[in-house]
Amino acid sequence: GIVELASGFFLSLDGSYTSASFSDTANGPSESEPSDNRNESYVLVNGKVGYRADRWAANVFVRNLFDEDYTLRVNRGSILAGGDGIGAATIGAPRVAGLEVTMSL
């Protein structure tokens, strides 16, 4: 949620939980290797602190505050499942911090 102070300063903190899932269309393990294509569960926390005036705002933000390692998609390519043994994964974004400035005309 967002906490706003009368002075124009604000603080925002949010989080999300994603449960374990599989990266295939059946959303289940392969018959020969139960861990194939499994994405583990993860929690992400984001935060923001800044100042808001009538026509502009500025804030410092951080996404993935605790630098959680997580996968969005994984394919381990198990030889037992008929693959070539070479896997691939789409990795989630690491911790990112930055500065935002907005202005309305």
Task: Describe the protein's topology.
Layout: E1 2-4, E2 9-18, E3 21-22, E4 38-39, E5 42-52, E6 56-63, E7 71-75, E8 88-91, E9 96-103
Antiparallel strand pairs: 1-2, 2-5, 3-4, 5-6, 6-9, 7-8
Structural description of this entry:
There is one protein chain. 0% of the residues lie in helices and 50% in strands. It is mostly beta strands and 105 residues long. It is elongated. It has no helices and nine strands. The mean pLDDT is 85. The two termini are 27 Å apart.
Which key terms come to mind for this protein?
single chain, 105 residues, mainly beta, five-stranded antiparallel sheet, two-stranded antiparallel ribbon, 9 strands, elongated
Low-pLDDT residue intervals, each spanning 5 or more residues: none
Number of helices: 0
Which shape, going by the Cα principal axes? elongated
Number of distinct beta strands: 9
Identify the strand order in the major beta sheet: 1-2-5-6-9
Helix share of residues? under 10%
* Amino- and carboxy-terminal Cα gap: 27 Å
What's the quick description here?
This protein is mainly β.
